[in-house]
Design goal:
Layout lengths: L19 H4 L6 H7 L15 H20 L4 H10 L5 E2 L5 E2 L15 H15 L4 H12 L5 H10 L8 H22 L7 H12 L5 H8 L9
Antiparallel strand pairs: 1-2
């Protein structure tokens, strides 16, 4: 069964790099494409419409992606980066060295689309199936991290996974709403009493700041005069 997909933003896409006759032969087998010296774009095409060699490569790449998602949720950018850089799984045959599975991203066969196109296809396919959702991922990350980290660190971690700017703001707003409460709970577990001198106040402030809490929140908790400024 084929699945219609669209190209995921931020990843490369390739069109035809061949002559007009080959450009009209999208349903040709991989052997023809190799001899013609071109590979058609797979963006927006159903799996069943593609040459068998490309189908097999996409299925293997999708299985790798699903294994990564089974461990934990990922953003699209994060998963794409891992698929592009993760070492190819290798299997050992008796009496032989390590052998890379055919068709994985070390395969440079002329009949296969570029790796960036294959990754974009897989990401779009998984998003269409509901396996990949940046909103769900961001919500989970913020709720998990806000118990022990402040907004500054959470914002940086979201950006590292490709969620930043206006896309990140709704999730950061939620984190800001609970930042003081989280910082206060963390401070009580770690210290529990106001600092008695400037050195101790600096130590407590540094502890909270290193965990990404904003200067305003740190000031409210440590206090200018060493007293907890709790509402």
């Amino acid at each position: 069964m084929g699945y219609a997909v669209s190209v995921s933003a931020g990843l490369g896409r390739s069109g035809m790099s061949c002559d007009t006759d080959a450009r009209n032969s999208l349903d040709s087998e991989a052997g023809f494409l190799e001899s013609a010296g071109c590979v058609p774009s797979i963006a927006g095409r159903a799996l069943g419409e593609l040459p068998p060699q490309t189908q097999d490569a996409l299925k293997r790449l999708r299985q790798r992606a699903i294994r990564l998602l089974a461990r934990r949720d990922h953003s699209q950018k994060e998963l794409g980066r891992k698929l592009a850089s993760e070492p190819v799984p290798r299997r050992r045959r008796r009496g032989e060295g390590d052998v890379a599975p055919a068709g994985d991203h070390t395969d440079e066969s002329p009949g296969l689309p570029p790796l960036t196109d294959r990754i974009a296809w897989v990401l779009a396919d998984l998003a269409a199936r509901g396996y990949l959702d940046d909103g769900r991922f961001a919500t989970s990350l913020v709720r998990r991290e806000s118990a022990r980290h402040g907004v500054l660190l959470i914002e940086r971690r979201l950006a590292e996974t490709g969620i930043s700017g206006a896309d990140a703001e709704p999730f950061l707003a939620e984190a800001r709403g609970r930042e003081f409460e989280s910082a206060l709970a963390l401070w009580k577990r770690r210290f529990g009493t106001p600092p008695s001198d400037l050195r101790e106040r600096a130590r407590q402030a540094r502890y909270l700041a290193n965990r990404g809490f904003s200067p305003e929140v740190v000031h409210r908790i440590v206090g200018r005069r060493g007293h907890l400024e709790e509402d």
